[in-house]
Design goal:
The complex is a heterotrimer of chains A (691), B (192) and C (581). Chain A has 691 residues and is α+β, with helices and mostly antiparallel strands. In chain A, 52% of the residues lie in helices and 17% in strands. Chain B is mainly alpha-helical and 192 residues long. In chain B, 48% of the residues lie in helices and 10% in strands. In chain B, α5 packs across α6. Classes of the chains: A alpha+beta (691), B mainly alpha (192), C mainly alpha (581).
């Protein structure tokens, strides 16, 4: 996978320093107002600063030193939150910078006519527009994203994918898209530009990682609403404490009304600053993790939706199976030895360079010790596969003619020569088909020698990955052009939940629509142009970077590694994103319990000495209690930055046990941790004689 | 969308008013009249065809020869059955402590030999101000005083008390209570 | 705590749980329009009502039309109740010749009854004529309850229906709730109550001679007792069943004519929780997953039972001041003991505390003892149960739809915690539902806190306080907690029958009811439009003990975090002062 864009260590100085400066800049109210929770903190910070100045002038409601301490820690709360956001952005920017280096202003050879050999003029890449046609020769950079209309070339795409091995790009088919900034290593390409400057794939990627295009996702909006409601509730709960306190002082006859400083401190402690402060960072970091997995998302919404996927559609070939069938057995006709069949099959395949052909040669050699002979020493003539004959084979110098091919083709061949197809092989052939294999019949003139059993080989480890998906609650469906029998056998072997046999673009689209009508969220991977309609219909569509432009445009995620099982990674990242938000929200709210026990007795003990009983943490003084709570509230943000950036670890488990674990850690932990934290801070404050 | 609903709203309101506000109470009253005439009219106690009280509504007593009921917080007079009310005194209200102290004094003054602590329901005002009952403990506490003032044996008084004691429903639900007015009526009649 | 406390509680809860299923199924069938006995025999009545009121029962309404119908019907109710009180002096069935109710009190009472709150600023027997009690109050007792049930039925349809624009017909839900559920139950209950001694007569009062004449406050000799009577049983039955709670008499069900015996008390307490509890089952039945109904009921009980036991515990423990004065408040075979101030002898501590907890868990608000005289923490329990948003049973219909708002919040947070866009009963919970659910949990606390804050500062509002010190603060806090959650019970020492409180509490009740009705109907509409997502392994099951506990935590945390400071300055500090002497 990615080499050049390795995850940077969390607190790398090159990111931390600019982030510190950025967090100062982000104190701008115009920035803060976007986040209601932190905006309340900003107002509180300004208010307490004012109160401090007032106290300096001798009209303070409390000792100036205390107000200053509270005020400073409120400012720190803001800075810490800003810092987390700046850190996340900084990591994104560092990646963007490396991508931007790719986007150089290269000279482009703009063809006057859209064909190879036409004259070209050299122009700057930035002047190219969609529809222009350029020539890219060995050593040239591809100036812009485009579609190959002529030529085959090897291309170095390491700048984008991090994969150093060059890839083949050619016109037509599913490998016709090229990306601006990659380099042609050999041969030439004629490319039709498919994006205007600023809208290329690379631009898109840069914008995504920089967070410039970040829009709030639906879940993020819903969460913001919830956080705003909590903020409002706590705002009321604290603001109304002032009249309550005035009443209590009047009725009890001693003490002073609670100070505004303490109320502001209480408010900031209660409102969900931990999640409110870290929320932007979590979102940016989620995108960042996608990029690290070499996946480019069209929007944050796509990342989030990935976490919700119910059904995953996967192409069989190349994803579930190795892509090629392999010979696994020779079954001779009645009266013949297996060796003679193996020998004939090997001879017929000696010049067959297809993977199936090679696998026959290898099987005959390994299982029956039949030496591989060279076609030239046999004075043989290779008969290649054609669409008409649907057979291939060999004519040997001694006059033997060996053919191998599909059942119908060989039967027709034998019949034509006056022979007949042995009945006993028919049942063998049928059982091979039933097991999901492909029977290949070998014949020598009129005599049918036997059958080669070709089998789809399911990739190693794929079964485990599907089991993992099942534990996540995701159903897997295999899509294949094979017939029903074969499809069923392979799906069973790979451990998939379902399959779609004899798939066409129409049946794929229909399947997705049916599943969506049933309320399921469908993800699929695809690369070919014929996948584009289905990709466009799917809720989460991962296009392979090697795929066609049409497929990439239809997908909302592009996998630069073109790894079909990447979806598992993507789902995990999507889930992590939501889980991090949910867990920190729970943590943030659970924290409030302890803060009440710290601040409420402190605030009212002068009015009602009996309330000292509620000081269950035995904090030293009212001032130290308030300060400890505020300090804890601020530094917990710093402590949680790594969690926000890395995300809460996700393990595929049933929903119930996942919830139980996270509730224990972040719910129960969120209630207990601050009791310990606040007490420790209080002890430190006492030791340092700060209060 | 709004206008179409006006007619159904008004008409259905009218019809439901007739059903729930007129028919329903009339039906209940009618059936009650037939089957439970005594209960429906206040469970009154008659002597010589004259109503002399309700077995459900308490009356004020402070004569030592009578059993005294729960303190009543109604105004302007205790056990004002046309304006029920509780004291609403909070548990820490000094007025509550004061009232209770005074009530204890009254009991002690009326029965100086009784050194037992006063049962709580005798010194705390009832919720309705009309509570017709006291607990058994509260009744037993007063037996010696009543017996002395009436020249009856304590056993006789106790017997009368137990006659007008209602146990728990199915021996479990509610609390066993003594009906003060009924006991006092019985005591007055016993003398004759 | 003693054996009788626990056994009585256990019997009460068992009786409740036994009734949940049959009544729950019956109500589900009624709302689904399927035959369930009564609705077959009374079908002609139902049809006649539709015909006479130009209701098209087959026409399903969009959520906006439904909301418009609800509001229209309720505003008519408020106007009629107001008018009847103002005009009662000129109308019939006024044997005591009670004069017109003053405008502010009439407004307060009108809103109070239409919103299913039944806050009593009026004193029943002294303020309202029988006509007003019957045509205004009894009617509202039925229809305000039926309104709540109708809205719940609409919300449940939101979960059941798939991609539909409408949520049902309000008039049909209203009429069915009234004639098939409320009237039959009220009829049965009122007759049993009469048999126990609850009065039911159109005679104004009875005069009896006092056995021992007494003196009034001015020293005048009083030798007669006037017993206020009236058609109480019919109203008491429905005020208990419909979570209304407005008493026929001033002291509500503490009055021996409203609640004369242990049996009447047992049944009246049961009636408080009966429909709200059974509706949980109705919900499960209608969404075709009964576990969901049990789950919500379980969540309610998990909060209810500890509250109930603590309330009994604190009241049974009694007042330490009493001990010092030489009062015997120990529970013995001869007396229930405990804090008996403001309690009736026949109920003792247990039945009083069970009622206090039930009436505030459900938004009933009727009382059989005076909450103002409870011990600080004994009184904290009822207050806090209301502050939780009246979702632990809550009002008929309204309690469950309030709880579902909390479920939506809980499902959302839990969904995030397992990395999945949340869904409940197959419906995706998105930002629109969150917005509306948030509004629902936001409004009551705002009303409580702001109302209390204003009242503890304004001199004319502070004057109304009866008990000095922190308890006075609790009185005001209780009043706003009660009205902002449409409960209606009170720390009755606070004199609220004055312009300030009649107006503010009236407005609070109005907004608390209707500002919640609109968002919940909006949720119903939005859910109806959605498709149903089939459950997979990744779907968070919402019937498991884990989720039930999580839901409980969400309700408690929101309630506790919002009100802890206020409670600390009220009952909590009062309790601590009591302990410290």
């Amino acid at each position: 996978m990615s080499k050049s864009q390795k995850a940077k260590s969390l607190f790398e100085p090159s990111i931390v320093w600019p982030a510190i400066i950025d967090s100062m800049k982000k104190l701008d109210p115009r920035h803060q107002i976007k986040n209601p929770v932190m905006f309340v903190v900003l107002i509180g910070s300004i208010l307490t600063t004012g109160l401090w100045l007032q106290a300096l002038l001798g009209y303070g409601e409390a000792p100036a030193g205390f107000i200053l301490a509270v005020s400073l820690w409120l400012w720190f709360t803001l800075l810490f939150a800003n810092f987390s956001e700046a850190m996340a952005e900084g990591r994104g920017k560092a990646q963007a910078a490396s991508l931007r280096r790719v986007r150089r202003d290269t000279p482009a050879k703009k063809l006057l006519k859209p064909k190879y050999g036409s004259t070209y003029e050299t122009v700057s890449a930035t002047t190219l527009r969609k529809g222009d046609v350029v020539l890219v020769e060995a050593g040239d950079f591809i100036p812009m994203d485009g579609e190959i209309i002529d030529g085959v070339a090897s291309v170095d795409e390491s700048a984008i994918t991090g994969e150093s091995a060059p890839v083949i790009r050619e016109s037509g088919g599913d490998r016709s898209a090229v990306t601006g900034g990659t380099r042609v290593l050999s041969d030439w390409l004629v490319v039709r530009i498919s994006a205007n400057p600023g809208q290329t794939f690379l631009d898109h990627m840069i914008a995504m990682v920089e967070g410039a295009k970040r829009q709030k996702t639906p879940n993020e909006i819903a969460l913001s609403i919830l956080l705003a409601v909590f903020t409002l509730i706590f705002l009321l709960a604290t603001v109304t404490l002032l009249p309550f306190s005035i009443y209590s002082v009047t009725t009890s006859g001693h003490g002073n009304p609670v100070t505004v400083t303490v109320l502001v401190a209480l408010l900031v402690c209660l409102i969900p600053t931990t999640i409110g402060g870290l929320l932007p960072a979590i979102g940016i970091a989620g995108m960042d993790r996608m990029i690290q997995a070499n996946v480019v998302a069209a929007s944050g919404r796509a990342v989030e939706a990935a976490g919700d996927v119910d059904v995953l559609l996967l192409d069989k070939t190349g994803t579930i199976t190795l892509g090629n069938r392999q010979a696994v057995d020779f079954i001779p006709a009645w009266g013949l030895t297996v060796e003679s069949l193996a020998d004939a099959a090997q001879l017929a395949s000696l010049s067959d360079e297809t993977p199936e052909g090679r696998s026959i040669v290898v099987l005959a050699k390994e299982k029956y010790r039949i030496r591989e002979r060279h076609i030239l020493e046999l004075n043989a003539k290779f008969i290649p596969f054609t669409a008409q004959t649907r057979m291939s084979g060999v004519d040997l110098g001694d006059g033997r003619q060996i053919r191998k091919g599909a059942v119908e083709a060989i039967e027709a061949y034998v019949n034509k020569l006056g022979g007949s197809f042995p009945e006993d092989l028919k049942s063998t052939i049928e059982s091979i088909s039933k097991s999901g294999g492909t029977p290949l019949v070998v014949a020598e003139q009129t005599r049918v020698l036997g059958v080669i059993h070709l089998k789809d080989i399911v990739k190693g480890g794929i079964r485990e990955r599907f089991a993992e998906l099942r534990r996540m609650g995701i159903k897997t469906v295999m899509i294949t052009g094979d017939n029903h029998l074969t499809a069923a056998a392979i799906a069973a072997e790979a451990g998939m939940d379902d399959f779609l046999a004899q798939a066409t673009p129409e049946t794929k689209l229909k399947l997705i629509r049916e599943m969506q009508a049933g309320g399921r969220l469908v993800a699929m991977t695809g690369d070919g142009t014929n996948d584009a309609p289905a990709l466009a219909q799917a809720d989460v569509a991962v296009a392979m970077n090697t795929g066609t432009q049409a497929a990439k445009e239809a997908g909302n995620l592009v996998d630069l590694d073109s790894n079909p099982t990447k979806l598992i990674e993507i789902v995990k990242i999507g889930k992590q994103l939501l889980m991090t938000r949910g867990s920190l929200t729970t943590f943030s709210i659970a924290n409030d319990v302890s803060k009440y026990f710290a601040i409420i007795p402190a605030a009212f003990v002068s009015t009602y000495p009996a309330l000292a009983t509620l000081n269950i943490m035995r904090l030293a003084t009212p001032a130290s209690a308030v300060l400890s709570a505020v300090i804890f509230n601020a530094i917990i943000i710093i402590f949680l930055i790594p969690l926000a950036l890395r995300g809460v670890p996700y393990k595929p488990k049933p929903a119930n046990s996942l919830l139980r674990n996270n509730l224990l850690v972040y719910g129960l932990g969120g209630i207990i941790a601050p009791f310990i934290g606040i007490k420790l801070i209080d002890m430190i404050l006492v030791v340092l004689h700060l209060v | 969308m709004f206008k179409e609903q006006i007619k159904p709203a008004i008409l259905s309101f009218l019809i439901l008013t007739i059903i729930t506000g007129v028919l329903y109470p009339l039906v209940v009253t009618g059936i009650a009249k037939v089957f439970f005439p005594k209960q429906a009219n206040g469970s009154l106690i008659y002597r010589n065809q004259k109503p002399i009280g309700s077995s459900l509504i308490g009356q004020p007593f402070d004569n030592p020869k009578y059993f005294w009921g729960r303190p009543s917080a109604t105004s302007p007079v205790a056990f004002n059955a046309s304006a029920s009310s509780g004291s609403n005194l909070g548990p820490l209200n000094s007025a509550l402590a004061e009232t209770i102290t005074n009530r204890i004094k009254l009991y002690k003054a009326a029965d100086p030999n009784n050194t037992a602590p006063v049962p709580v329901d005798l010194v705390t005002s009832s919720a309705s101000g009309l509570d017709p009952h006291i607990s058994l403990a509260a009744a037993f506490y007063q037996i010696s005083r009543v017996a002395r003032h009436r020249n009856l044996s304590q056993d006789t008084v106790k017997k009368i008390v137990l006659q007008h004691t209602k146990g728990r429903l199915m021996a479990i639900i509610g609390e066993p209570v003594v009906n003060v007015l009924e006991v006092n009526l019985e005591l007055d009649e016993y003398k004759k | 705590m003693n054996w009788f406390n626990l056994v009585q509680t256990a019997i009460f809860l068992s009786a409740l749980l036994l009734l949940v299923k049959p009544l729950g199924i019956y109500m589900a069938l009624v709302y689904e329009g399927k035959p369930a006995g009564l609705n077959v025999w009374l079908a002609p009545v139902e049809r006649w009502i539709y015909r006479l009121s130009f209701i098209k029962p087959d026409m399903s309404m969009s959520w906006k039309t439904y909301a418009a119908a609800v509001m229209l019907f309720n505003i008519i109710g408020i106007i009629v109740v107001y008018a009847l009180q103002r005009l009662q002096a000129y109308l019939f069935l006024n044997p005591m010749s009670i004069p017109a109710v003053p405008p502010d009190l009439a407004f307060n009472t009108a809103v109070s009854f239409a919103t299913n709150t039944n806050w009593q600023s009026y004193g029943g027997e002294t303020t309202l004529s029988y006509l007003t009690q019957m045509l205004a109050l009894t009617v509202q007792n039925f229809v305000s309850a039926a309104t709540g049930m109708a809205i719940l039925a609409a919300l449940i349809r939101g979960f059941v229906q798939k991609q539909v624009e409408t949520i049902g017909n309000f008039w049909v839900d209203l009429v069915r709730s009234t004639i098939y559920v409320l009237i039959p139950l009220a009829l049965i209950l009122s007759l049993i109550l009469v048999s126990q001694g609850v009065v039911q007569t159109f005679k104004s009062s009875a005069k009896v001679a006092l056995l021992q004449p007494t003196k009034d406050a001015d020293g005048k000799i009083i030798s007669e007792q006037t017993l206020a009577l009236g058609p109480a049983a019919s109203q008491v039955a429905i005020k208990q069943l419909g979570t209304n709670g407005g008493g026929f008499f001033n002291v509500n069900s503490a009055h021996p004519y409203e609640n004369p015996t242990a049996l009447s008390n047992f049944l009246e307490t049961l009636a408080i929780l009966l429909i709200p509890a059974a509706l949980c089952y109705t919900f499960g039945f209608m969404v075709r997953d009964r576990r969901q109904g049990w789950a919500i009921l379980a969540a309610m009980l998990i909060i209810f039972i500890p509250c109930l036991l603590s309330c009994i515990y604190f009241e049974q423990k009694g007042n330490p001041l009493f001990d010092r004065l030489g009062v015997d408040q120990n529970a013995t075979a001869l007396q229930p003991g405990g804090n008996m101030e403001g309690k009736e002898a026949r109920f003792g501590v247990t039945s009083s505390a069970v009622w206090a907890t039930a009436t505030t868990a459900a938004s009933n608000g009727s009382v059989n003892s005076m909450h103002d005289s409870y011990m600080p923490l004994g009184g904290l329990i009822p207050m806090w149960l209301m502050q939780l948003g009246e979702v632990i049973f809550g009002g008929v219909g309204s309690g469950l739809y309030g709880m579902i708002a909390f479920v939506i919040i809980a499902v959302f947070i839990a969904g995030l915690m397992i990395g999945r866009t949340p869904e409940y009963l197959g419906k995706k919970i998105e930002s629109y539902e969150m917005k509306m659910a948030s509004l629902m949990i936001l409004i009551p606390p705002i009303l409580v806190l702001v109302g209390t804050a204003v009242s503890v500062v304004l001199p004319q509002a502070k004057q109304a306080i009866f008990n000095p010190g922190t308890h006075g603060f609790s009185e005001i806090l209780y009043a706003f907690s009660s009205t902002a959650n449409n409960n209606g019970s009170a720390f009755a020492g606070l004199s609220t029958n004055n312009f300030f409180y009649n107006l503010t509490l009236g407005l609070v009740m109005f907004f608390a009811r209707y500002w919640l009705v609109i968002p919940i109907l909006a949720i119903a509409g939005s859910l109806s439009r959605k498709k149903v997502v089939p459950a997979t392994q990744g779907t968070l099951p919402t019937h498991t003990p884990l989720f039930i506990l999580f839901l409980v935590m969400v309700v408690l945390i929101v309630g506790a975090l919002t009100f802890f400071p206020a409670l600390a300055l009220g009952p909590i500090v009062e309790h601590l002062m009591l302990g410290g002497g």
